[in-house]
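Why does residue order matter? Because the sequence determines the fold. Keep that principle in mind as you read this record.
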Amino acid sequence: MSNLIFIKQAIGDETPCRDYNLSVTETLNELSTLSFNFDATVHNGVAAQMMSPQSTVFVPEVSQWFRLTNVNPTSLGNVRSYQVSAVHVGTDLHDKYVETKLTATQSLENCMKLITADTRFNYVIHDDFSNYSFSDGFGGDYADSLFMNTLKDDFGFEFYFDNWTIHIYKSIGQSDQFVFVDGYNASKIAWTEDYSNIRTKIKGLGKQNDDGTYAATAEYTSPNAEIWGIKQSATVQDDRFTDANSLTDYIKSQLQDYPIIQYTMERAEFEHGAKFSDINDVKIGNSGLLKDRLGVEVDIRIVGKTYYPQDSKQTDTITFGNKIFDSAHNWAMQQRAKDTNEHIGKSVKQLSQDVTSMMNNGVWYIWS
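Structure:
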């Protein structure tokens, strides 16, 4: 089945294109990507000629523009087939190099003004963010790197691009938006757990004074120390902090006091050929419930998905992000294991007593 997209050259000329095998991949805090195929038939002759650097593609079903990254034409007899990849036009933020620097304490607003000035981009900051103190200043890099690699981590936000508009939130998505049940609308649910980097205690040192002392010190012990014991993390020293409370909040954010848990499932389907969005809301950032055949229920969050907006016969796939460790759930699980083990121990002890009693009373059984 052929579908319709629009190709636009850098000089502004635009033409429709009949495509197939179109898919969009979205990932939390990254630019979405696009892939599609088309054949250079009479209808697509102009589109084939527009496969050039800086051309963009508009996908009506998602109302987003993508910029070409790779074009792979292959000869198929009398016609040439094109396999095309593109990335969201948010990549244009890389066109600006920020030469100037902001110093000292700055607001997110000021930083965003700096990196988007004299560009096509605008932004919306949907939540409140505390100011941040830059010890080495902010700037001196490409705008996209400053945004995705510096501001995102320093201010602690999540984002997505709506064409040339950047939306910034403390957290994207909503809770309780979907349910996946193994054997009903999902299959082969599995997970991996990484215990290697669990730490439960951390110390912090603020700005160092001329006499070698520190303007602020802090120490934090996680409640999960009751489960894992005291596991000391490396001491953090950061000259940005002169206040103990701010330093405490920072070192808390640096402590990984839970195992990293990654959930996957082989596929997800819905009755009557319905797409994900017809039954569950699987937008990036949304969280919901995952339940396997053994009755294990966990809260998970969607951090990526690949979907086919022009082909209802294709099955979308989703990626679940790491689940924050639930200490209460873990404690209950350990207690259930302990109770089960005690029950088995009592059963074995009772069986041993019964066998001893039968032997003492001269009762024998012949097992066939």
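Helices lie at 45-49, 108-116, 143-155, 225-228, 244-254, 276-279, 327-360.
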